[in-house]
Amino acid sequence: MATWNALNLQNAASPLMEQLTFFHDHTMTILILIVSIVGYNLMSTCFNINIDHHMLESQPLELFWTIVPSFVLIFIGLPSIRLLYLLDETFKPAITIKTIGHQWYWSYEYSDFTDIEFDAFMEKNNYLRLLDVDNRTIIPMNSQIRVLITAADVIHAWTVPSFGVKADAVPGRLNQINFFSTRPGLFFGQCSEICGANHSFMPITIESVNPKYFINWVKNFN
Ligand SMILES: [Cu+2]
């Protein structure tokens, strides 16, 4: 169902995604201001309104419109760099999950304290079209999760927009992302690197659950 929500980012389910959403709104506000002001001036010159000799060859005016944008860039750049480094920071993870991209499914390994391994194929004829898998990735909520990402054949990309994570799955290389799920629920992602004919059919489905339930799931897994 198409709604106005489709124009926005997905609801944040992790603190970092909240920060990314704030940064997006902050940047868009500045962008709209710049487009309005520049657009107004452009139209004014087009129709010969608002132009007089004070605006031509004016040193103070040129100084002003050089210095102001440089400050605008700083106000965008500083929070952007802060976020970039924050996203890369590894906080002490509660669990580590390894995910391997294949043509065309993801496989998962919970190998730090269990021997759980499974493949996650797309669930067909499901009302969650192109988004659900047969074996969902279970994670404990309110815990720091680390995901190690690699691929077995070609380059894929592992993404979950609600958690604000996306990393390439490259054969022969181990990439790392981490996130913190603030609420229980189902969170969806799709492969984000064109990897072949069935690229659209290898979704990522995360089930964020109460840590007690997660421990039960680990104990009962066979
Ligand atoms: Cu793909």
TrEMBL record:
Ranges for domain Cytochrome oxidase subunit II transmembrane region profile: 1-91
Presence of the UniProt keyword Transmembrane helix in the record: yes
One Gene Ontology CC term in the entry: mitochondrial inner membrane
Keywords: Copper, Electron transport, Magnesium, Membrane, Metal-binding, Mitochondrion, Mitochondrion inner membrane, Respiratory chain, Translocase, Transmembrane, Transmembrane helix, Transport
Molecular function per GO: copper ion binding; cytochrome-c oxidase activity
Major location (coarse): mitochondrion
UniProt-listed GO biological process terms: ATP synthesis coupled electron transport
Recorded catalytic activity of this chain's protein: 4 Fe(II)-[cytochrome c] + O2 + 8 H(+)(in) = 4 Fe(III)-[cytochrome c] + 2 H2O + 4 H(+)(out)
Bilayer topology annotation: Multi-pass membrane protein
Comment on bound cofactor: Binds a copper A center.
Domain Cytochrome oxidase subunit II copper A binding residues, every copy: 92-220
Family membership noted in the UniProt record: Belongs to the cytochrome c oxidase subunit 2 family.
Protein name (Swiss-Prot/TrEMBL): Cytochrome c oxidase subunit 2
